GHMP kinase
Amino acid sequence: MLIETRAYARAGLLGNPSDGFFGKTIAISVRNFGASVTLYPSPELNVEPQAQDTNSFRSLHHLRDAVSTLGYHGGVPLLKAAIKKFAEYCETENIRLPNQNFSIRYRTSIPRQVGLSGSSAIIVATFRALMQFYGVEIPQPILPNLVLATETEELGITAGLQDRVIQCYEGCVYMDFDRSIMEKQGHGDYEPIDPRLLPKLYIAYNTDLGKQSGRVHSDVRARWLQGEPLVVDTLNAIADVARQGQEAIQQHNIDRLNELVNRNFDLRSTIFNISDRNRSLIEAARACGASASFTGSGGSIIGIYRDDAMLNRLFVELRKINARVIKPFVV
């Protein structure tokens, strides 16, 4: 029995990053890139490393670049953490697992360290493989919680629910993380949106993956917890961008959506530190006439373009700053 499961990259369209602050977001799955997990029975439980998990390097510079793009440990810790969290979930739910072992390995085409959620995709694919192997059904609204807990509790990764929700649900989803909803049911309200209603979208990400040292650092969470009015009000406004965006999508109001995409980033930039490299992506795209905002925490942007001529300008101008432009494939 050979099991292969898959999870895709994602892009936050509106409301990002209010998901970590009881806000609202709209996100899409990006099937241009994906992570797959292969699992098969074996006498012992084996987690198989891939080429990017190597500890052998051609030079000091090779090691530096590999760590910059893949982290210190590659993808193997993601598999181990997901397996541990799956076992703990089953124990908590009194699900008795059969005594059978497996070997597991992963592959991924998702660009790392550019805000397309490559790590969580590997974890989602791992949970799907384990569920299939052991015949366990985890309710769809609960699965994103487990994926998030795998990253925050096991690996110390700071993250929110948005990415895990869209990677579990796929397509396009409007998410409401209002505090009262979260406290009442343990998860947000997740409403799928027909992807055919979406406007012409592009995604651009920086291909200079060896130079990721200029990461964005911010004390926004501490300021939010302290109740600083500027931070609280701005994050509430960002969440409302998603609410307005849901209405604009349903009404097919492209002009309004363009405004909201730009407003999302402009609001974010008032309380978050934006690196020059990330800001250059936004400015180059807007100079072409497209709207632009972050897909995640930086490294890639998403926006709306008008026609093929504008898309071609995006290809040309963003290539000048080492950025690749794609049309996201959303099903």
